Amino acid sequence: MTAPDTLLNAPEFTVSELSSALKRTVEDNFGHVRVRGEISGFRGPHSSGHCYFALKDESAKIEAVIWKGVHGRMRFKPQEGLEVIATGKLTTYPGSSKYQIVIEAIEPAGIGALMALMEERKKKLGAEGLFDEARKQLLPWLPEVIGVITSPTGAVIRDILHRLEDRFPRRVLVWPVKVQGEGSAEQVAAAIRGFNALPEQGRIPRPDVLIVARGGGSLEDLWSFNEEIVVRAAAESMIPLISAVGHETDITLIDFAADKRAPTPTAAAEMAVPVRSELLVEVSTLARRVMVCWQRAQEGRRNELRAAMRALPAAGDLLAIPRQRLDGAASALPRALKANTHAHFRRFAGTGARLTMRVLRAQIAQAKQRLTASGERLMHSATSLLRYRRDRYAGLAIRLTASKSSNAQAQRQIIARDRERAQRLADRARRALVTAMQRHQARVAHSGQLLAALSYRSVLTRGFALVRDEEGHAVHAAAAIGPAAHLTLEFADGRVAATTDTDRPAVTRPTKPAAGEAKEQSRAAAPKRIAKPVGQGSLF
């Protein structure tokens, strides 16, 4: 048999069948992989919410995709030029005959990448003014309530409570949060905002100062306090905030946004309250000084009063001159009363002589004339005012009628525009529904065509037959058929029964091994593949 005859007997594949076979091969051999490389071609999420970019190193590049839901849950977001370690599964995209990695998790590759990301985020937030000294608040001198945001099971909260008990016992409210791992940044930011949201005179008292604390650790362990959501929450806090994250050498971005940074959680407790014993001694000293000053002031005033008493004259000397003046005024009072009476009598007599009947009648006539003139002026003013008010009301009535007419016309125009807009939206909805129905029908038709292409019955139409044994199982080799075996041949247009020759040697059917044993046998029977330098297998 020649080579062309051999090629003619090879099975034929459609493009879709070959693409599906390659897809299954890649996904079966590379379930989950971890790839280290530099992000290239990242321009932000697509309009659909998915992210498309590539991972590259010095000599190779692989396409990558992050689906919308996975990207929303990621702790580290992809950035152009960042070296990362991506975890995902390999698959193929039949539309462009290429393979790609579907990323499920991503993390920076090493401390250098984390430091670069931290510096970039520090510059960005600093440019927004979140680290300015002008916006930092002063700590209260003696807070009544202290809010602590930390893990309730660590040694940090015990150190803070012990230090507060030694210096100045205060009421402490603890908001338990995760200080490391997935979701810890969101919990810390929610705790800061939650303390700020407490009412002033509510059932739960609002803290006067907040302490965000955590023990020391590596840069990865402290990364939650470098997240943008935590830094913004600390900058927006209206309650003075002390950052006590890590040891003195550990630096996080929340330290720059906080109102005060403490090198350790214990130092944060020392910043929050003064020493009670020192305050008691200082208060006692000030009380003694106040008492001494008061006594000195009282003694000085007593001496001044004694000196003033010695300088005052006797009571008789002070009242001698006023008494003499009173005696002189009493002796002159009778003569003054008689002279005052005579002066008033003369004035009354002169006034009575000038007051006659003719004068009174003239004054009455003048008063009548003034009253008549005032009445006429009042009547003229009332008439003019009434005419003015009538004209004004008529003008307002005309304006009101015109305004009502124009307003009604405007409302009718608005209603007409809204009716036209509703009609346009209804037309667009009908067209969109028709388009969606057509798209779904096309997808159903395409799926039916794909199902028909992948079905084994399409192979039967090309002249092939499917051989089944008595139990209905497909027979793959002639060695599996015994003498006088009853077979069923399935063609494209029906089935035919057949019986094998009686002189064939009997063949024992091997028992079906277990799933694990079958996998081991197939692995042992398969030829060993030559491993490529990549270290993760090949496509075939």
Describe the fold and architecture.
Helix 5 packs parallel to helix 9 and helix 6 runs parallel beside helix 7. Strand 4 and strand 5 form a beta hairpin. This protein has 14 helices and 13 strands. The strands form three sheets. The chain has a five-stranded mixed barrel with strand order 1-2-3-5-4. It has a five-stranded parallel β-sheet with strand order 7-6-8-9-10, with helices on both faces. Among the domains are: 15-108, OB fold (Dihydrolipoamide Acetyltransferase, E2P); 142-274, Rossmann fold; 363-443; 466-510, no CATH class. Helices cover 53% and strands 15% of the residues. The chain is α/β, with parallel strands linked by helices.
Highlighted features:
540 residues, alpha/beta, OB fold (Dihydrolipoamide Acetyltransferase, E2P), Rossmann fold, five-stranded mixed barrel, five-stranded parallel beta sheet, 14 helices, disordered C terminus
